[in-house]
Amino acid sequence: MRWALVAAKSSVGVWHSGCVLSKGMASVPATSPPPLLESSLGYHGAVSAFKRRLIEATLHQVSGNRTHAARMLGLQRTYLLRLIRDLGVAAPPPPTRGRRLA
Questions:
Q1: How far apart are alpha carbons 75 and 51 in whole angstroms?
Q2: What span, in angstroms and rounded, lies between the C-alpha atoms of 37 and 48?
Q3: What φ, ψ does residue 81 adopt, rounded to 5°?
Q4: Nearest to residue 58, comparing CAs of 75, 43, 34?
């Protein structure tokens, strides 16, 4: 497995064959490297931005299913829901269940 670390000022990304890699989940296809973060963002802002992008990509992979996304990320579902709320993740609406109301 080949790993590359790309760093510029305050942003750090891990790339492999055009995919962003993260521990505990399959690689997420990336068409281009993420935009460089502003230096004023700082460490905590950069970590929050990374978490937000990772959660958004995972939710996209599982068609908005938050339970499956939490499993892929190795998180409790309730903690994932808190992160979605706190980080302002642009999450698709959760899938509707197959029930019909009579």
A1: 12
A2: 12
A3: -60, -40
A4: 75
Q: What is the 3 state secondary structure string of 86-99?
A: HHCCCCCCCCCCCC
- Give pLDDT, residue 101: 61
d(CA 76, CA 70): 6
Would you say 59 and 53 are in contact if contact means Cβ atoms under 8 Å apart?
no
- Is residue 78 pLDDT above 90, yes or no? yes
Give the relative orientation of helices 42-61 and 77-87 as an angle to the nearest 10 degrees.
120
Q: CA–CA distance from 98 to each of 57, 72, 84, 101 (Å)?
A: 25, 23, 24, 10
**Does the predicted TM-score (pTM) go above 0.70?**
no
| Per-residue pLDDT tens over the stretch 14-73 | 444 444 544 444 455 555 555 554 556 899 999 999 999 999 999 999 999 999 999 999
